[in-house]
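User: We ran a pulldown and think these components assemble together. Before we commit to crystallization trials, I'd like a predicted model of the whole complex to look at. Sequences follow.
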Amino acid sequence: MNGRERILKTLDHEEPDMVPITEILIETVHKEALLGKKIIQEPNEVVKMGYENNVRHYLELNVEFYSKVGFDAIPYVPTGGMFKGEKYRLMPDGTVADQWGAIWGYNIYANELVYLRGGANGTTIEEFEENFPEVPKTLVGLEYLVKLAHKKGMAVYLEVDTPFVTAWYSIGINAFFKELRERPKTVKRLVSRITSFVCEEIKIAADLGVDFILSSGDFAEKNGPFMKLYYYDDIIWPNLKREVETAHSKGLKYIKHSDGNINKLLPKLSEIVDGIHSIEPPAGMNICEVKEKYGDKLVLIGNIDTSHTLPRGTKEEVIEEVKRVIKCAAPGGGYILSSSNTWVADAKLENCLAMVEAARKYGKYPIRL
Amino acid sequence: MSEDLLNEISTSVAECREVSYTLQLVQKAIESNIDPLKIMDAVRKGLDVVGEKYEKMEYFLMDLVLAGTTASEVLRLIKPLLMKATSKPKGKVVIGTVAGDMHDIGKNLVIAMLSSAGYEVIDLGIDVPARKFVEAVINERPDIVAMSALLTITLDEQRKTIEALKNAGLRDKVKIMVGGRPVTPEFAREIGADGYGKDAVEAVKIADMLLGYKVS
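Assistant: Here's a predicted model for the assembly, 585 residues in total across the polymer chains.
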């Protein structure tokens, strides 16, 4: 059984030969350390290289990395990292604005673009709507990625941005919450318009051969949901449903990522999406409880702690955590092993690799832990 | 009359009313020649309620951000008047987001909360290298240095800044508090900080604690 088959069986809540593994993002320092190669991400160099060449360069190295580690699935991120490329706008202060008006700074230590603030397309919804980007005709490089990854037996998933978070990234968090408090109907209209954009991306990705959809962007923080549940009912859930229905109409499963404590959101989420990613232990998320309550409805991905175990834990602690999580979440299928966020830069690479090794050793079905 | 208006300001902040509504009340208070310190204290009382409710999980991040935005805008409006007021601040805090990190939302929220609680806050901005913190400690003589880091890759800059203060012989002159999403109490202890605040509400409590004020 190859990685792709393993993933698809897991998404169908069946037990494959072993627990599949993926990561939605790996910070560049780890990729460069393991591959011994430089990934071109510095904005001026990206521009010099040309967008399509840079995307190809990024994808090839990503496939090489994911395949070397032994992951079963690899993400395609249309607006993350290098994929801001085509819509790149180098700003006079050295920052980069993306198509949504979010402003990113290049972090030289990490060789990554990091989100700074919104506002490049305006700080009001009206300005934002005037500069609304055109729906893409294709997702550059995705067909190539699918070909490369499938050849290596890996599944490919499209990582889309959650419309609600796109809106807040674009005009800035303060302005966004202010608008939401004062003009909820206007925010609703905007989120709905971004959702239509995302639905088109999902259709394109499906036609280009991706195996499932994962939506990034958080719905919660460590204290719980960002906002009163009323706003989720009014704005978030109806739009999320549209995305999921679009994915389903193309025969694809839809996974929702969120950091933070999502316990209060799980009853609704379990009615809408096919799975959840992150399940962050320091935010109070207990994967054993989530599996017990929602395991028949939701595929679970994540839970290996990125705040303590991967950066500061010992190899033995990593192995114990992997065993504990697999024991709770893997029986019956429906669990994909991953960190509780990403391979963050201060995680020890040897711990991340130990996580994968332990998952392979103890994740063989039937689970005997 | 002035008490009623001040109570209205507190309530407006506490109930997370529209920012523009609170600003109107503040403007009215200014025009009525109400002591700007009393206005700021009314805002602080409102923020305290928001903070308490957030900690009890009755309020959400959105409420905290809205209250912080309101406090920042009120502060901007009455800062010129506050400068003329004579009351002594509770303490002086030098704050910045560490080198390599350009996030300012959390830091600005902490500034709004500390300012409203009666602290004088010197904002060094974002991407602040260790030597700038050292210079600020020499020039500003603060009671507290507060550092924010939002990226895991810039966490170590908090340690480096503490080292730089030690090397400059200034470590014992100030209390140091750290915060930011990836920071943990464990990490704060490891790098030798005096305090760790998990959010802007807790930052005020930590500052009070470090300077020996009664913590509510």
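The first strand of chain B starts at residue 91 and ends at 97. That may be worth checking against your pulldown data before setting up trials.

User: Thanks, that helps.
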